[in-house]
Write a sequence for this structure.
């Protein structure tokens, strides 16, 4: 059981770094990639919580549909966020 | 027997994920980062299935299969965005 | 007897695949530009994901403590291995095409770029 908590700690560190970088990033496409990394880390965390149903729902939204929508928006607006 | 094999494999995978994550952080161009994320999550599929053997539950590998599929979709979205063609307009 | 053979073969594949994945990750960090890193990514996805998945399937088939669940986990692992085998090269190929066409990935240590000479990606 302690293996689960150890892996959970590692995964949450990945998610924290990816989230922080996604927020401070100016280039929006990179922010989308960081948010994809963060959501993959959260999917693994949900997997470690033994909740495959929630992970099955969380994964398509945050790795599939959300980046597609945001990229569609970035295509319409500008890519690098002015200060 | 099985647990020793898996106990040997898990640290190697975690070190590989850290190195991939370094490439995600360092990658100069956008395709570099997406390629690292793509390789990272295809290796995460292995990690999920190896863990589901360790955790003895049959329903958990479903997440791994869906992760492989949606990683491919992420690649295609970024590729379509980079090519500046229609994004489904 | 069969279980022992299956587990050893699966374990061998799993560990070799994990080492291959580690080598691919190191290669991903050391290669000069995007198009050389495609090779590291392919080594990482096929050598580092397909072989361990087949190894995990063999381990699942051989592991007695899973009882009936071993067929589920082994089957899912083989399906995932088949999917990774198809999706990984297709995804990285689409990415490489987009990267070259949109010129975001520069070919830095450039000897020759035949694709550019042929007028680029149509």
């Amino acid at each position: 059981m302690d293996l689960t908590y150890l892996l959970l700690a590692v995964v949450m560190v990945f998610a924290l770094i990816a989230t922080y970088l996604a927020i401070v990033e100016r280039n929006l496409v990179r922010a989308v990639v960081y948010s994809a990394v963060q959501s993959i880390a959260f999917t693994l965390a949900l997997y470690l919580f033994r909740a495959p149903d929630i992970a099955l729902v969380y994964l398509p939204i945050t790795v599939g549909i959300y980046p597609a929508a945001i990229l569609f928006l970035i295509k319409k607006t500008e890519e690098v966020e002015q200060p | 027997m099985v647990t020793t094999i898996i106990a040997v494999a898990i640290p190697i995978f975690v070190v590989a994920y850290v190195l991939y994550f370094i490439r995600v952080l360092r990658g100069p161009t956008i395709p570099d980062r997406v390629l690292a994320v793509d390789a990272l999550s295809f290796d995460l599929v292995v990690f999920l299935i190896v863990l589901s053997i360790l955790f003895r539950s049959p329903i958990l590998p479903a997440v791994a299969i869906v992760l492989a599929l949606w990683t491919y979709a992420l690649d295609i979205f970024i590729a379509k965005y980079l090519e500046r063609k229609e994004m489904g307009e | 007897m069969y279980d022992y053979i299956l587990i050893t073969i699966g374990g061998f594949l799993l560990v070799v695949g994990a080492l291959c994945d580690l080598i691919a990750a190191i290669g991903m960090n050391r290669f000069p530009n995007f198009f050389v890193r495609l090779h590291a990514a392919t080594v990482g996805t096929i050598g580092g994901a397909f072989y361990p998945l087949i190894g995990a399937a063999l381990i699942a088939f051989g592991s007695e403590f899973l009882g009936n669940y071993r067929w589920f986990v082994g089957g899912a692992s083989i399906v995932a291995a088949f999917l990774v085998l198809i999706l990984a090269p297709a995804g990285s190929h689409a990415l490489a095409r987009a990267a070259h066409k949109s010129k975001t990935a520069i070919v830095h240590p450039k000897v020759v770029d035949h694709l550019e000479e042929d007028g680029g990606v149509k």
Observations:
- Residues 30-55 of chain B form the longest helix (26 residues).
- The mean pLDDT of chain B is 87.
